[in-house]
Amino acid sequence: xxxxxxxxxxxxxxxxxxxxxxxxxxxxxxxxxxxxxxxxxxxxx
Length: 45
What we know:
The protein has one helix at about 30-35; strands at about 5-10, 10-15, 15-20, 25. The protein is an alpha+beta fold.
């Protein structure tokens, strides 16, 4: 779906853009298309 949502103690927020250290700012959909999750960088579904 190209959406990146994060759950906190009060509910969910949608991440619209983000910036990894040393990288350019990108939209969440662009991040999800290219980032490779691993044991070092896990993602919980």
